[in-house]
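Milestone 3.1: sequence recovery, worked example.
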């Protein structure tokens, strides 16, 4: 006589890199909870500027002109983006962590930050940043 055999395991279906479903052992992963809204464009550009700077400093990319060629943009556009690296560290951090835009247009644009980034005095940059935030209705503390 045969004895019934029961095996219990936690499994879930997952998609492989090629899109095929496969059976994976273990509990199903928790669904990703996204915050409402989107990251402001200027925050993404600031992160990109830091990345570009790091690539050139490490030697992975030879020059900013090479970045422009690889990105299919003009050297002037790369310069506009890289100007954000000249912001005072606390201002740059505030830009990176701007509140998400839930609807409509972003409150702060790259064109608003260009004159601030071109100011060599960090104290003046901080005053200009606070004034810009006040004028644009963005509640940011430095």
């Amino acid at each position: 006589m045969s004895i019934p055999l029961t095996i219990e395991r936690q499994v879930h279906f997952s998609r492989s890199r090629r899109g095929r479903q496969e059976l994976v052992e273990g509990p199903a992963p928790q669904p990703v909870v996204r915050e409402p809204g989107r990251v402001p464009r200027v925050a993404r550009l600031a992160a990109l500027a830091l990345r570009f700077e790091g690539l050139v400093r490490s030697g992975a990319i030879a020059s900013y002109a090479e970045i422009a060629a690889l990105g299919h943009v003009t050297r002037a556009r790369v310069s506009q983006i890289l100007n954000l690296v000249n912001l005072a560290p606390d201002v740059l951090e505030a830009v990176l962590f701007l509140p998400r835009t839930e609807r409509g247009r972003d409150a702060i644009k790259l064109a608003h930050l260009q004159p601030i980034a071109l100011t060599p005095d960090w104290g003046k940059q901080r005053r200009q940043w606070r004034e810009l935030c006040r004028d644009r209705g963005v509640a940011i503390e430095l």
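DSSP finds six helices and two strands in the chain. The mean pLDDT is 91.
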